[in-house]
Amino acid sequence: MGRVAGKVALVTGAASGIGRASAEVLAREGASVILTDVQAMGEDVAAGIRKSGGKARFVAHDVSSEGEWTSIVAGIAKTEGRLDILVNNAGIAVAGLIHELTLEQWRHQMAVNVDGVFLGVKTSLPLMRKNRGGSIVNISSVAGLRGAANLSAYCTSKGAVRLFTKSVAIECAVMQDGIRCNSIHPGLIETPIWGQVVPGANEPFDLDAMSALRVPLRRKGMPADIANAVLFLASDESSYMTGEEMVVDGGMTVGST
Ligand SMILES: NC(=O)c1ccc[n+]([C@@H]2O[C@H](COP(=O)([O-])OP(=O)(O)OC[C@H]3O[C@@H](n4cnc5c(N)ncnc54)[C@H](O)[C@@H]3O)[C@@H](O)[C@H]2O)c1
């Protein structure tokens, strides 16, 4: 308990899946958490955290909107007075064969997964720098480390998050501002996002069967598996890590069994 006590954390995409679990774990460990999402049910997640004694508030937020980022960070400056942890988690998966993808679909993928992360870092850095320190955690994917059929737009967006993370890390190090930035690369995690990856599939999509086939540890991951990695990178326990890519995938990208 208390691994991020007294810190203020902003988690995007916190209404569901990995973002929700991350917000809950950070609050449990003592952070005051601002949850944001396009889905209003983020309010219920924040209420649940408060009910269990944690500090949390929800703000409706589309991460692709620069204006919304500016007003949310200004609100944190006014209400909490500081920002120590930023978890850029919100994301969507636009699936489709390359010759069938429209430019509009491609741009929508980049707007949420890439612009959203850029805007989050850009608008949060000045407030984080006021305290001379902080930790930024960007949720990339194993899809940011290698290609996949039917997921070219998603893989491109997650590859961009991987290298943007390293650029943020180096730029902050050059400025000696005490801010670290790392990426997490989840494998097959049980969340609603899989409904987007296999749209309208005739056969029910079976993440357990896919995990049994592709994951050396022979199981799918759960949101808590990623939230625990977020907690470590957000906390001072990882104070000598920056620009790192932490893969949490049950061994999937290491080799086949
Ligand atoms: N589940 C997996 O297997 C997996 C694997 C690798 C990476 N990821 C990444 O993890 C992150 C979280 O995804 P998840 O699996 O928990 O899925 P999820 O669908 O449960 O959660 C994503 C959340 O982001 C929110 N969101 C979507 N567009 C938004 C926008 N424009 N502004 C603000 N919020 C928005 C959604 O409303 C949702 O609550 C994503 O970046 C995803 O790409 C997931």
Task: Please characterize this protein's 3D structure.
By secondary structure, this protein is of the alpha/beta class. It has one domain: 3-Layer(aba) Sandwich (Rossmann fold), CATH 3.40.50.720. Helices cover 44% and strands 15% of the residues. The protein has 8 helices and 7 strands, in the order βαβαβαβαβαβαααβ. It has a 7-stranded parallel sheet with strand order 3-2-1-4-5-6-7, with helices on both faces. Helix 1 crosses helix 8 and helix 4 runs parallel beside helix 5. The radius of gyration is 17 Å and the shape is globular. The structure holds nicotinamide-adenine-dinucleotide. Nicotinamide-adenine-dinucleotide binds next to helix 1.
Short description:
The protein is of the alpha/beta class. It has eight helices and seven strands, in the order βαβαβαβαβαβαααβ.
The molecules bound to the chains, other than polymers, are: nicotinamide-adenine-dinucleotide
Q: What's the tally of helices? A: 8
Q: Would you identify the regions where 5 or more consecutive residues have pLDDT less than 50?
A: none
Helix residue percentage = 40-55%
Question: Sheet with the most strands?
Answer: 7 strands, parallel
Strand order of the biggest β-sheet: 3-2-1-4-5-6-7
N- to C-terminal separation? 37 Å
